[in-house]
UniProtKB/TrEMBL annotation:
This is VWA domain-containing protein. InterPro entries: VWF_A, vWFA_dom_sf. PROSITE patterns: VWFA. The chain crosses the membrane at residues 31-53. The keyword Membrane applies. Keywords: Membrane, Transmembrane, Transmembrane helix. It comes from the Bacteria. Residues 367-568 form the VWFA domain. Residues 1-27, 59-83 are annotated as: Disordered. Residues 7-25 have a biased composition (Basic and acidic residues). Residues 66-80 have a biased composition (Pro residues).
Amino acid sequence: MSDNEWSDPRLPDRMEWSQPHHEPPPSRGRALLAAVVVVLVLLAAGGLAWRLMSNRGTPVAEPSAAPLPSPQQTAPPCPDPKLRVAAAPEIAPVIEQAAATLSKAGQRCSEVQVQAVEPGLVLAAKPQPDVWVPSSSGWLAIAKAQGRTWATSGTPLAWSPVVIAGPEAISTLFAPEGKTSWSGLMQAAVQERLPAVRMSDPTVTTTGLLGVYALNQATAKVTPDAGIAKLQALTLRSRLENAAVNQAEIFRQMAAESDSNTATYDVGVFPTTEQQLTTYQKTEHRVRMSGSAPADVQVDADYPYASRKGAPADLVKRLRAAITTESVTGAGFRVAATKGALRPPADVRLLLGPAKQWSDYKAVAFQVLLLIDASGSMNEKITDRAGRTATKASLLRESGASAAQLFGAETSIGMWYFGTSRASEPAHTEEVSFGRITDATDGKSRRLQLAAKIGSYRPVATSGTPLYQTVLDGVDEMRGRVKPNTATVVVVLTDGADGGTRFAMTNADFLKKLTAGVDPARPVPVIAVGYGPDANMPALQGMAKATGGRTIAATNPADLASGIAQAFLAAHATS
């Protein structure tokens, strides 16, 4: 993994360290007071402010009073600090408080400089800080995978459980009987029982990183098939109102909100830390918030104290010793891990994989035509990942039912089956007419129609596979539906090769017809899932390449759900 894999183009290339804090001199009476007022007015007019980085690069703290020079002489400028510290925003004030105690008597400038920075931004920052206090040990593992090793000092400074929070007015919707769960949050979002669901970017924040990991673990606990579990976890991603929320900004907005009804709708439900929630709750606000740690999978944000090679060891040690238990608990943190909480995995890929998929998902206006192979070979028996004997068709029914929930309200969709058992039959049949997934026909939404059709999927034993003709017709159909600012794709799933029907053609003839119709102004990528060991992967790769699409190999039939999940992600990564 390269050092810049997690870099964010929205961010500066370098960490901009602010000037160290200055201690103001004693008051010199009314004349000096007047000078203070004049200087402060000039500073305000000039727009000077002490800036601490947040994950959006916006100020998160107001300036301390700047020192005034003595009338007799101008004070010399502060030298560069000896120790630069990057800390998660919520614990940065605790570190600053400790740093302030290290100044020697009469010392004008602090030797320690603290910046509030979300962990994912530290990974991409240059230069790196001397000391890093992220909000999860998982970030240190990610840094190590990038080739940067941090040495930790003792146990973490603090812990804080990740909770699911929202306005008290809707607590019965996301926390029935006062209890929350990741699976309950997912179901409430799918059933549209919540005004909004928001999460922070898992490549930047700890609540995002650990939240996505915990959600995947929660679905895996109740779903034996790993691919279907992944599909279910992605369902919540498809329903997010905002996938890059800043929890601190939400709490600031709520503190200033005067209309509780508007706030309830605007804020919705989101994961945060217990410390951030309780800090908000300590002060009376018009919009009251509530929340709790999810009952199905609990995870802790922990705050390791880590230093890089070459940092001034004595100052690193002194700062660590200056951070007291009283200051940690006084800020709302815990001093021990939650019993039973899930720790970050030893294999960092288990954190990075779901986080990257989550972050790469694009909630764009989306048009998709599903082409499902209904030939006889789909009735073949296989053994799934849980050791069960099943058929390819039964796995498709199970996986497809979950997939039907993944498409967001911005999706328009249609579905065809392809397979012929008699010469007079067409190459494909329309099972679900194309249209917006939330629209209803015959009293049932298209999403429910899609789930019902896949649930009743029964391939005909004697059917051949008119793969090429179906793809040509599907691409031509969707090319006529292309419109600006909308991703338009064809997803085809097959377990075999073209043949056994009157529509059979050579691969060369197929590609000639397919490429002849390619129009750069109306792109329709084909995302082809080869299901099982007999799928003609070279043919699928050819059609994907010719249209700018992607090929996904689910060579083990038990991996069908994973293949569908990858196709779903690939479709939403297409713009």
